[in-house]
Amino acid sequence: MTASATPPEVPSQETFEAVYNGKPMFEGAPAAGVPWDIKDAQPRIKELAAYGALHGEILDIGCGLGENSIYLTQQGLSVTGLDFSPSAIQQAKQRAAAVGVSVNLEVADATKLDGWDGKFDTVIDSAVYHCFNHEGHQQYANALHRATRPGARWFIACFGDGSVNGITMPFGVQDPEEIRGVLAEAHWNIQYFGRTTYLGSREAFVGAALAGIDPEQMPADMRGRFARPGVAAQAQQTFERLQQLDDDMIHMPFFNIVAERG
């Protein structure tokens, strides 16, 4: 899923636009598609809906190609999907129309959310938080606080540590203490902090692992993140493991956080 960003080490709108328009992550890499596009809602989102955890006006922040928004609308929930990428929103609207679903999908900057004050009771963040650096996290958490109503809940799924079937996150793993500090400063009270998995495209994720092996190939806005110590070696291990798997989809280790608006 995508979100806005301008600081160093953070993917820009141009980077996301390239991915959504079928371009490779770096020159010479295969244009394998969007790593988070599984042509369906994430299993975690389906579980939250089944448990009745999502209520009121729901914001699908960084909605990407809209599969979570479409699914939740089909379950009778009121959903707005926002994404920083115009191409993602355009394609999401096409997917919604193809299955006869009417859902509000718009372009917006997740670190600002201008014009959305006090609109939402629930926020689902499916792989957005880890797109930002520390400053971006602060802006994002504060923007969501402004866009939500008292008692709103924010469900976060972001890059975590650990391994699932030999698959690790070689870059962008979040620091739990940093998350706790950012949310507390923005008046979000963490109710649960644990682990979950996130489903992604194995073929498309290969491109990301390849980028980690040689970060100089990456767009300038993401080069710093991939150049961190240890990333290249871990990316090499992940790339080799991906070659051993036959499934089209892979489960990735994520943190699972639930926070309530203070």
Automatic annotation (TrEMBL):
Domain Methyltransferase: 58-151
Biological processes, Gene Ontology terms: methylation
The keyword Methyltransferase is assigned to this record: yes
Keywords: Methyltransferase, S-adenosyl-L-methionine, Transferase
Gene3D superfamilies hit by this protein: Vaccinia Virus protein VP39
SUPFAM superfamilies in UniProt: S-adenosyl-L-methionine-dependent methyltransferases (SSF53335)
InterPro entries recorded: Methyltransf_25, SAM-dependent_MTases_sf
GO molecular function: methyltransferase activity
UniProt-recorded name of the protein: Transferase
Source species: Mycobacteroides franklinii
